[in-house]
Amino acid sequence: MSLDITMLPLGPLQTNCYVLRNGGQCWVIDPGMWPEPLVELLRREDAAPTAVLLTHGHGDHVGGVDALRKAFPDVKVICPAADAAMLGDAQLNLSAPFGMAVTAGAADATVEPGAELQLGQTRWAVLDTSGHTPGGVSYYCAEEGVLVTGDALFASSIGRTDIPGGDGQRLVRNLREHLLTLPDETRVLPGHGDETTIGRERRLNPFLL
Q: Domain of 50: which CATH number?
């Protein structure tokens, strides 16, 4: 069974939320603010998620966590370890400075780079793409050639680092070492904007040339 991917842009910043399904199991990655369309989709398609994976702890990516927990009480929330404190702190997750004050309950589990997760028959490597936040990660499935990058890598751009917790040198180093070494045809599913590929970003991304 191949991997099924649905993308929904959510909230005022149009954060890309991804619903991944394989082998009768479902994940949600980065449930953004204003999650009602996401909950409606999952209920309509009878796709109760087993896990919510977070690429990092910013408020526009974690805003729908509590709504998913309410709708699907068995779901487990998995957060990068170094960003875990951001879930419950609107200052740390940068939502308060933007006048939105988003918080979420504590993660059920944390992950570190180097871990491997399984969705149905697909295996996902946790890659270090910190630098936009202290603990940011990307999720990579080699069998399907899919990479979910959150706000680390975009089409022709990279995540902001001129914010609390940002480190530009660290982000660029991680992108070059852990993402640009992947096959050219790898699909990049970013946290905002259009899908791209590793090959395109290696050739054209001005921040990585």
A: 3.60.15.10
Q: How many domains does the chain have?
A: 1
Model confidence at 1: pLDDT above 70: no
The bridge status of strand 146-150 relative to strand 137-141 is antiparallel
209 domain residue, yes or no: no
Contacts of 41 (CB under 8 A, 6+ apart): 6, 8, 19, 47
Range of the domain at 151: 4-204
Type of residue at 26 = C
Report if residue 163 sits inside a domain. Answer: yes
Q: Where are the beta strands (DSSP E) in 4-163?
A: 4-10, 15-22, 25-29, 51-53, 76-80, 109-111, 116-119, 122-128, 137-141, 146-150, 153-154, 157-158
* Ranges of H-type helices in the chain: 36-44, 59-62, 65-71, 168-174, 198-204
**Can you give the pTM of this predicted structure?**
0.98
Under 8 Å between Cβ of 107 and 79: yes
The predicted model gives 27-55 an average pLDDT of: 97
How many residues does this entry show for the chain?
209
Q: How far apart are CA 5 and CA 26, in angstroms?
A: 10
Amino acid code (one letter) for 184: D
